[in-house]
Amino acid sequence: MLITQKKVDTVKETVNGLSTDETLKVERRLDGQLWAGRNGDATAVQVTRCFPWSQPDRFISLRDDDEKEVALISQLSDLDKESRLSVEGALIEAGFVMQIEKVLSINEDFEIRHWKVLTRQGDRSFQTKLDDWPIKLPGGGFLFRDVSGDLFFIDDVENLDEETQKHLWAYIG
Question: What residues make up the domain containing 73?
Fold first, then answer.
C-alpha cells in the first residue's frame, strides 16, 4: 500500500493502483453497475462502509467482485459531485436497514428462527439461523442479519415495550 500526501497535509491511500484523491471517478453505468477508476481504467465495484454506525459517511471501501479493495474513500466530500452522488446512491441501496420497534413473535423450527416484527417500515417477517445471534454494536444497539442478508436494527432495548423485551431477553440477555 502506497501513501501519498496532498497539498493540505491530509494522508490518502492508494490501493491496487487507484487513489482516493480527487482523480478517482465513480459512476453508475447503464447496466446499473457501479464503476470506479482513474485515467481511463475502471473496475466494477460494490460499496462497503468500514464503520457504518459510527462514521457512515467516512471510510467507504470500493471492492471488486472478489471482495478485493479497489479504493478507499476517506470521506465523501473528497469526490467530485458526480462521483459522490453515484456512491451515495449505492450506499443507500447497500445499506438499507430496517429499524425494529416491536417484536411480535419468535419461533424456532428446524435450524431456523422465525421472527415477526413491527419496523418503522411496517410489519415484517424474517428468518435467522439458530446459531446466528444478534451483534451488539459498540455504539449501542443490536444488529440482526437474516438468512437473505437483510439487516434489522434495535437501537435501545430498554425503550421497547415489555413484551418485546421478554421476547428478546434470551437472545441479547
Answer: 2-94
Q: Are residues 28 and 110 in the same domain?
A: no
3-state secondary structure the chain: CEEEECCCCCEEEEECCEECCCCCEEEECCCCCEEEEECCEEEEEEEEECCCCCCCCEEEEEECCCCCEEEEEEEHHHCCHHHHHHHHHHHHHHCCEEEEEEEEEEEEECCEEEEEEEECCEEEEEEEECCCCCEECCCCCEEEECCCCCEEEECCHHHCCHHHHHHHHHHHC
Instruction: Divide the 173 residues of the chain into consecutive groups of 10 and give the mean pLDDT of each group.
Output: 30 44 80 85 88 77 90 90 89 79 94 94 93 85 86 89 93 81
Could you read off the pLDDT of 72-105 as tens digits, one per residue?
Answer: 999 888 899 999 889 988 887 776 788 899 999 9
Please tell me the predicted confidence (pLDDT) of residue 4.
31
22 and 87 belong to one structural domain = yes
| Domain's final residue, options 94, 129, 155 | 94
Q: Are residues 71 and 146 part of one domain? A: no
